[in-house]
Design brief:
The complex is a heterodimer. Chain A is an alpha+beta fold. Chain A is 19% helix and 45% strand. Chain A has 2 domains: 61 residues, no CATH class; 85 residues, Cupredoxins -  blue copper proteins (Immunoglobulin-like), CATH 2.60.40.420. The chains are: A alpha+beta, B mainly alpha.
Amino acid sequence: MRMICIYILDMDNGAYRKFWELENTVHHCRTAQPETLLNKSAFARTAILGLSLLGVSAWLIFGLMPVSVAADILVYSMTTKDGHFTPDTIEVPAGQKFKLVMKNDGASTEEFESSDLHREKVVMPGKSVEILLGPLKAGTYGFYGEFHPDTAKGKLVAK
Amino acid sequence: MLSTAIIVFREVLEAALIVGIVLAASEGLARRGWWIGSGIAAGLGGALVVALFAGAIAAAVSGMGQELFNASILIIAVIMLGWHNVWMGRHGRELAKEMNAVGRDVVAGNRPMYMLVAVVGLAVLREGSEVVLFLYGIAAAQQEQAGLMFTGGMLGLVLGAGMGLLLYLGMLRIPSKYLFSATSWLITLLAAGMASQAAGFLAQADMLPTLAPALWDTSALLPQKSLLGKLLQTLVGYTDRPMGIQVLFYVVTLGGIAVLMRAYGGVTASKPATAVAAEI
């Protein structure tokens, strides 16, 4: 089977029309963008695209927010002070969501970081942050303080 | 001092690499030094403001403000990088035809530069605010050693910037006819990696499901925290234990930008003057 594509310049609007021919029957297949409108329409389309992407991310951020507000969730507390976590090991239940409240009693900033847990969060002096975790499989999950990597180490043991 | 240098180096590395890629992508454009310089300056100013309000940001959105803030910045940067690529794909060829220097400046310079400048600014803002918080913490905690620590911080900053410069100089060695597609690809990978990071932050805040806690584990082979791991994390979005949602965001962003570049990019390429028949 032979298919032939033909571009014809439409003088009315400056657009190229593309036809494809199939066994002597000419079908209209699509209209190409008029050359003159190219820049504006491209800009408009990208603008619309950008806005809709923004909309989608706004929806993701704000629309899904209520999901994160869980009513009764286990809470564990830990303090960090100038490069040390107290306690440095916490036992948590496996298979369950929980919250770790990290309070910084020291004078220096700390960043709670864990590749095992996929978390990174800055804790400023005198403040505390909440870290949502779980459900975890049973096992040991290490974490450390990015701003005191030599001394600030701790782990969660999920059982 | 050395540990301070290392910490600052790690924090600035990502921003420095992004500046390096943007420098390569804007090679040959008029006044790009000014543009990129103002992007960095705006980012630094923003970083100070963000550090100042860090407490308020962290407390916002029921304690998940930091995650949302990071995710939002990353998503905006992804959109801008994608936009830049599609725009350049569309106008790259027109640009080549346009020999007039002024016209070229207008066509090639302005619009994508705004995007890239914003991306540079956002990267500096995000990483810079953490450096500011870190250095501020040091200044508050150890007054007597603060001077030495700041020297370390500056050393880390210079080392990080050096890596960005190395990347830029390396990319300049790419023959100029391939440079455009090389930077397009790098920017696409960079954007996909950022989208995956953003998904990670949203999953941290429990606003997206993880889908799978870790699709694979290559932390023994190449830890993400190592220098090479960190480099690859920024450049191609490497994660040693990626959540399912991160891989999904990565693939969708990569595919999305590639499809958009195809759909919106190459239309002007080989249009016949009047009528051309092509056999398929």
